[in-house]
């Protein structure tokens, strides 16, 4: 009898947390993109979110879903990037700048603790999770942190202290100066340990200089930046980004990546796109 080949499932490339947009809407304005008069189409938003999730999974990632039960008063909980920044089994929680989002911390902390994470994080100063803190470098030995609009510089030393382990890393604070790009993940996207795309004008001159010394940076145009081209989800060699950032897509192809375009128009009404809806977790 001929031997039967055993199918080996491909190894997952990433693990990502998403929150279902059950309660998503725009009912206040805390960034230049938000206008409560520009109502969210809830059915369309749910379809867009489901498509983003499916695209992430097709690209090779596992997606965990947080169900926002009891959080009907928190319409922005869909943006899980802001939940925390995670290193190993430690999750340094957000302390939101605006009162409208402060209640999200309770739900994120509950989910993370129930899934085995040690939760940390000060409530003495604002910090907005992986929306303002992105890992890069070899073995994630660099944490780029946006400061200014949402995150206080005092978070930098606290992050370094609370997330330290046997593998050293450094925290790099970079100042954001354009109100349209109020989190670092709206204007900077590490593709791999030594390469990232960015919109330089979102940062002050000192930040631009310091970032160029730490990682190879490929700029995107202002036109594409306004399409949230840097707010992308990277899964291996696939980069998932909002449709309309065509020049960035061509650039990514030249760099050896496969762009996957998704429609995030309903979420952009709240100032977020693909990356804002995701939080990277350890495998």
Strand and helix layout:
Blueprint: E1 14-19, H1 42-58, E2 61-66, E3 84-87, E4 90-93, H2 104-114, E5 118-120, E6 133-136, E7 142-147, H3 154-162, E8 170-175, E9 188-192, E10 195-198, H4 205-212, E11 216-219, H5 222-225, E12 233-235, E13 238-242, H6 246-254, E14 258-262, H7 265-268, E15 279-281
Parallel strand pairs: 1-2, 4-5, 7-8, 10-11, 13-14
Antiparallel strand pairs: 1-15, 3-4, 6-7, 9-10, 12-13
Concise structural overview:
By secondary structure, the chain is an alpha/beta fold. The protein has 7 helices and 15 strands.
Task: Tell me what you see in this structure.
With 283 residues, the protein is of the alpha/beta class. The chain has a single domain, classed as L-arginine/glycine Amidinotransferase, Chain A (5-stranded Propeller). Helices cover 22% and strands 24% of the residues. The chain contains seven helices and 15 strands. The strands form five sheets. A three-stranded mixed beta sheet has the order 2-1-15, with helices on one face. A three-stranded mixed beta sheet has the order 3-4-5, covered by helices on one side. The longest helix has 17 residues. The radius of gyration is 18 Å and the shape is globular. The N terminus is likely disordered.
Entry keywords:
283 residues; alpha/beta; L-arginine/glycine Amidinotransferase, Chain A; three-stranded mixed sheet; 7 helices; Amidinotransferase
């Amino acid at each position: 009898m001929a031997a039967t080949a055993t199918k080996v499932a491909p190894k997952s490339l990433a693990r990502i947390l998403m929150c279902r947009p059950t309660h998503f809407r725009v009912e206040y304005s805390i960034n230049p993109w938000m206008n409560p008069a520009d109502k969210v189409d809830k059915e369309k938003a749910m379809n867009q979110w489901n498509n983003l999730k499916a695209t992430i999974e097709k690209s090779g990632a596992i997606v965990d879903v947080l169900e926002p039960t009891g959080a009907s008063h928190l319409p922005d909980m869909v943006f899980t990037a802001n939940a925390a920044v995670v290193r190993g089994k430690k999750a340094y929680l957000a302390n939101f700048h605006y009162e409208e989002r402060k209640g999200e911390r309770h739900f994120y902390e509950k989910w993370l603790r129930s899934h085995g994470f040690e939760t940390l994080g000060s409530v003495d100063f604002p910090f907005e999770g992986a929306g303002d803190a992105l890992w890069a470098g070899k073995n994630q030995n660099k944490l780029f942190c946006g400061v200014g609009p949402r995150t206080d510089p005092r978070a930098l030393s606290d992050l370094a202290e609370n997330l330290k382990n046997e593998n050293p890393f450094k925290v790099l604070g970079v100042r954001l100066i354009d109100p349209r790009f109020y989190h670092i993940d709206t204007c900077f996207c590490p593709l791999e340990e030594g390469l990232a795309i960015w919109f330089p004008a979102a940062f002050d001159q000192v930040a631009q200089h310091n970032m160029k010394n730490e990682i190879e940076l490929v700029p995107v145009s202002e036109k594409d930046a306004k399409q949230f081209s840097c707010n992308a989800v990277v899964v291996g060699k696939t980069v998932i980004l909002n449709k309309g950032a065509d020049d960035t897509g061509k650039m990514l192809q030249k760099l050896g990546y496969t762009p996957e375009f998704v429609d995030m128009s309903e979420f952009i009404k709240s100032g977020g796109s693909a990356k804002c809806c995701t939080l990277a977790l350890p495998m």
